[in-house]
Write a sequence for this structure.
């Protein structure tokens, strides 16, 4: 059997980027031979094994045929006769279809190195269309490597458009799509992900609500520049949409709870945050109560940061941020103990606490 390093590890080494995990490809072996050597199979019908010592993934060379619509519709054909070239040709991009043997010799039948040097994301063959998730993967790689000057090849964009127009993207599961979206949002140029999806017709299929929301791309870019969290980036992307649209996108991709929550809160409260300096103390208090800043200070902080990202490009600063932080600190500082000591409890205590907080916010405003 022959063992090769493949995919991202080869690509990122050639790019001089840190390699996180290594995928190995095994040519000329059977499932039985792998097991005899102590490799543990990952799943019942997927020819992938875990190395007994290193824990790294070893996949048997395989060809892939499509048997049905969407994910789960794959059949894998793995056998000792499948060659390195046959395995590599069914991969997504030429830059991901290079292999390296144990001596460090590069195998590059589809000219990935040339595309790497020319900064081009190009599909290897028509087999690209076998997995519609690759449309999102290409957009994600475009976002990741944008600082290096990469672009998507025209023919690849055309193929991505065909996939989008075929309706195949609708068959992707929320989990697979979200994983790509999440990874793309955390890249340094996440807006490129959305731009590429837009340019091939995939945005229309996946997030039609965003088709006319180009301001949010600037905000998202700012969020990435300021190393904001995933939830902040997601909320920046959805900012400006109506509440119903935000909820629809959240659910479509089953975004994690903290992402969903922040996006919804932005939809409901961002405009008032922008007006923070003019808000009456009672309105300010309503906001703080709604955000439950007493128990969830971090969520309010992420909300403020999302609003700040939306104001940044104008570079006027965002005094609302400090003002809102100060208001939250003021309301949180109100001590419940004297009220309890005076014998208050239950609803009456809640009302009294609210009244004290309102007083404190009035003083804060007039300071
Ligand atoms: N691959 C593919 N089509 C997919 C997923 C993966 O062709 N839908 C192939 C590519 O050759 C890829 C390799 O499998 O390089 C490993 O996939 P994965 O670990 O998901 O990605 P990496 O290329 O390692 O990239 P990343 O740095 O994003 O992990």
């Amino acid at each position: 059997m022959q063992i090769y390093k493949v995919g991202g590890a080869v690509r990122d080494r050639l790019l001089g980027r840190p390699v996180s995990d290594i995928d190995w490809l095994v040519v000329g072996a059977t499932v039985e031979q792998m097991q005899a050597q102590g490799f543990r199979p990952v799943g019942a019908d997927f020819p992938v094994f875990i190395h007994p010592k290193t824990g790294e993934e070893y996949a048997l060379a395989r060809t892939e045929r499509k048997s049905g619509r969407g994910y789960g519709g794959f059949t894998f054909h793995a056998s000792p006769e499948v060659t390195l070239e046959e395995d590599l040709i069914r991969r997504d991009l030429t830059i991901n279809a290079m292999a390296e043997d144990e001596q460090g010799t590069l195998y590059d039948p589809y000219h990935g190195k040339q595309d790497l040097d020319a900064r081009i994301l190009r599909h290897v063959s028509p087999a690209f269309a076998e997995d519609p998730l690759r449309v999102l993967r290409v957009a994600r790689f475009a976002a990741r490597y944008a600082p290096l000057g990469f672009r998507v090849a025209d023919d690849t964009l055309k193929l991505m458009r065909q996939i989008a127009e075929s309706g195949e993207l609708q068959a992707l599961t929320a989990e697979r799509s979200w994983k790509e979206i999440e990874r793309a949002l955390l890249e340094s140029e996440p807006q490129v992900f959305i731009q590429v999806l837009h340019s091939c017709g995939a945005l229309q299929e996946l997030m039609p609500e965003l088709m006319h929301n180009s301001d949010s791309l600037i905000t998202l870019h700012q969020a990435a520049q300021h190393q904001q969290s995933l939830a902040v980036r997601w909320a920046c992307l959805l900012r400006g949409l109506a509440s119903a649209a935000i909820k629809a996108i959240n659910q479509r991709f089953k975004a994690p709870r903290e992402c969903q929550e922040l996006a919804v809160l932005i939809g409901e409260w961002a405009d008032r945050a922008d007006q923070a300096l003019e808000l009456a103390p009672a309105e300010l208090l309503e906001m703080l109560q709604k955000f439950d800043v007493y128990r969830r200070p971090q969520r309010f902080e992420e909300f403020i940061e999302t609003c700040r990202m939306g104001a940044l490009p104008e570079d006027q600063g965002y005094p609302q941020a400090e003002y809102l932080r100060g208001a939250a600190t003021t309301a949180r500082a109100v001590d419940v103990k004297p009220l309890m000591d005076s014998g208050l409890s239950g609803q009456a205590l809640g009302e009294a606490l609210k009244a004290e907080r309102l007083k404190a916010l009035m003083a804060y405003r007039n300071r």
In short: The two ends are 77 Å apart (CA to CA). Residues 7-8, 23, 91-92, 96-97, 131, 133-134, 137 surround cytidine-5'-triphosphate (CB under 6 Å). The CA atoms of residues 281 and 359 lie 8 Å apart. The chain has a mean pLDDT of 94.
